[in-house]
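Batch job 17 of 40 flagged for manual review because the log was empty.
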Amino acid sequence: MDQYSNINSMEQKDFWDSLHIDILTSNQKLVKEDYLMYVERSVMFSMFFRGCTPLEIKSFQKLFGIEEYAYVILFEISEINKTNLPGSPVDDISLYRLIKNSAHLANSTIGPLVTNRMSILISHDYLLKEQDQIDESISLSREFAKIIETEYETSVKVGIGSMQNIHSIYTSFLDALACMYNGSKDNITNYLNYQKSSIHTGIDYLETEKHLVEAIRLRKPEAYSYFGIILDGLRSLNDDAKRNKIFELLVLSSHTMQIDGHADFKYIDYTSYVNQFMALTGNELIEFAFQCFIYITSYVKSPTTIDYTNHIVKATREYLESHYTDDISLEDMASQVNISPQYFSKLIKKTTGFNFIDWLSMLRVKRAKELLANPNLTVKEVCFMVGYKDPNYFSRIFKKRLGITPSEYVKTSSYLSNKS
């Protein structure tokens, strides 16, 4: 990548990240609980998909009151875009609040919705007896599942991991993953029962590996489940055997990404990986392997990260910057990038987290703020200059995004300017 490309990428990032922050905070009066919600979800995301140091985990424990022993409940939600309210899609913020408000009986820490899965950490200050942990976890899972199924008219599958010391909680996460494809008709499976049951007879390694490759090729959410199932099956091996099998899997995953030409394929320094694997033992190997897989496949991305390198996102940004004053519809924009309006809408939502109208209106409001700083321009003139034909409509959009009208914004800005 040349110097110009690097600069262009940074400009893309600055542009989209700035809009992203503005949309997130527009017309929102965030209180302490809201900020903690974003931090809590980010912590859980990092804990299971990016990895945390012991010191970081200690800090998280102190911040969120996470006790020394915990287990993971993993929810898989069917038809995640379906709700009991037409036109009102499920989002992870509303789902988080729904669970949080019902979790008063448990010391719970809630993660973000990643594809169609959400993880919940249940912690205690002592290690529960096996049967007590089974009874509690299944009871909580039924309670949470019922709430989700009732609210969103959907079905929920639940995997529950074993109770672990918080510094080994990754093991519980992989346990929960293994329960997702256990062959049981029960929608709620605790790993402790799964180990004892007749359905836990070991995996067909080659068959599972085929499913893994196919899921990677098609970018299916099941990819990291199959990888987790294979890792679960490797636990009984000694460390040398683990390293060999894990390295084979990572090379296979990387090769699958490369030959299928995935745009988000990442080059892997295999030598570096070998050196790191040789320094790890036991469950550390399993945890590091899973994080390597996440990196190689780019399967899991932070829900607050914008894929500004996507060529459609780039083209949209460039066109909007030049034509935001025009009367632009979603159909017009889709035509500019030569894809269908339906696909364009889904792609922009998926890669940026917001819909096209959000981006366009926020961009216009940002430009309006700059223009309103000019005392020689009226609100009406600024309205037309940023692409709106109706000053009243412009005022409503401006207030929706910033919480005040354009006129109020001018008065506030003038007051602050005179005061300074």
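Reviewer: the log was empty due to a logging misconfiguration, but the result itself is present. The chain has three domains: 32-197, 202-302, 311-419. Unflagging and moving on to job 18.
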